[in-house]
Design brief:
- Strands 1, 2, 3, 4, 5, 6 and 7 form a seven-stranded mixed sheet that branches.
- The protein is globular.
- The protein has 136 residues and is α/β, with parallel strands linked by helices.
- Strand 5 and strand 6 form a beta hairpin.
- The protein has one domain: YbaK protein.
- The protein contains four helices and seven strands, in the order H-E-E-H-E-H-E-E-E-H-E.
Length: 136
């Protein structure tokens, strides 16, 4: 893309779609085990930590940039939902499945790709779940 797609708002503006159609990838760190958790959320939703804790079985906090890079090989703002050396525990926001196509980061803050959200769930091995209480 000729402009940054680092945030859901920037990506939607660059693509010409709604922010809800952006599949933002957010990395969390399990508090007890230290393992990464990947959440692919609709761009308008904010992940509810309590709901994520219920899904993971332990508290998880949004990861710091160094942890994100170490766990995924990518920098914040360009983390794709696929393409990691090891499969990550992944949760897919059920709100994405109302669309026939969503847009996700493709490894840099200047690249995105379109995909059917059901196919995205299959490719990631992610579990579709509710991850936010209120759509933002």
């Amino acid at each position: 893309m000729p402009v940054t797609t680092r945030s859901a708002q920037e990506a939607a503006a660059a693509i010409g779609c709604s922010v809800a159609e952006i599949a933002k990838t957010v990395v969390f760190k399990r508090v007890n085990s230290g393992r990464p958790v990947l959440v692919v959320a609709s761009g308008v939703n904010r992940v509810d930590p309590a709901m994520l804790e219920g899904l993971c079985g332990e508290p998880a906090a949004q990861a710091k940039p160094d942890f994100v890079r170490a766990a995924t090989g990518f920098v914040i703002g360009g983390v794709p939902p696929v393409g990691f050396e090891e499969r990550l525990e992944t949760w897919i926001d059920e709100d994405l499945l109302v669309f026939t196509e969503v847009w996700a980061a493709a490894g840099t803050p200047f690249a995105v790709f379109a995909i059917d959200p059901a196919r995205l769930a299959g490719l990631t091995g992610g579990t579709v779940a509710r991850i936010s209480r209120v759509r933002q």
